[in-house]
Amino acid sequence: MGRKQRILVGGLVALAVALAAGGWALQRWLAGDGLRQRVQTEASAALGVPVSLQGLRLSLWPTPGVAVQGLAIAAQPPLSVAEITLRPALAPLLRGQLRLEALTARGAVLPQGALLQIAGAAERARPAPAPDGGSAPDWSALPRTVVLQDITWVAAGGARHTVDGRLRLDGDGWPAEARLDVGAGPYQGSRVALTRRAAGETAWSLRADIGGGTVQGPLTLTPPARADERHWGLNGELQTRGVAVAALTAPARPLSGRLEADTRLEARLDPRAGGAALTEALRSQTRFVVHDAVVHGVDLARAVRTVGLSRGGDTPLDTLAGQVRTRGRAVQLSQLVAASGALAATGEVAIAPSGSLSGRVRVDLTGGAASQALGVPLVVGGTLDDPSVTLTRGALLGAAVGTALMPGVGTGAGASVGERLGEGLKGLFGGGTGPDGERAAPRR
Question: I want to staple 402 with a disulfide (CB 3.0 to 4.6 A). Which of 26, 370, 377, 410 is the partner?
Answer without folding.
Answer: 410
